[in-house]
Amino acid sequence: MIKSNCRGPVLVALTPLVLSILAASASAATRTDLHQQNVEGLNRSYAAATQTLGIAASSSERHAEALGFDSESTLRALESSVDSDGTRHYRYQQYFRGIPVWGEHVVVAEDGRGNLKSLFGRSVGGLAMEIPMRAPVVGAN
């Protein structure tokens, strides 16, 4: 019986492909489950960070800062409401460089003083690694 070792060349040929897939997934954008975030910790961190600079005037900017969004990510309000106890609720669409991040919403509840009470939804970070600054230019030939 003759044994053939055909798997060797195939494995060598597939190794670069597998490595490139693994490298790409290492720098992929990350989704953060906001309900799992420590709201008290976020409030403390935000209060410390804004002590000298001041608090952002708009709720969307304030919430984006509190959640640690990068400078290219923003929140745009979809709806808001106020409960009888003064709790304000906001539903946001996340945007990155003016492009909506589809499929994910950020839901924030805050007390009358602007402190976060609860968070729901998911935010997406690390998008700068995924989306180039400019679209590639196609040469006119």
From TrEMBL:
InterPro entries: FTP_domain (IPR011096). The keyword Metal-binding applies. Pfam families: FTP (PF07504). GO terms for molecular function: metal ion binding; metallopeptidase activity. Keywords: Hydrolase, Metal-binding, Metalloprotease, Protease, Signal, Zinc. Residues 74-122 form the FTP domain. Residues 1-28 form the signal peptide. This is Vibriolysin. It comes from the Bacteria. GO terms for biological process: proteolysis.
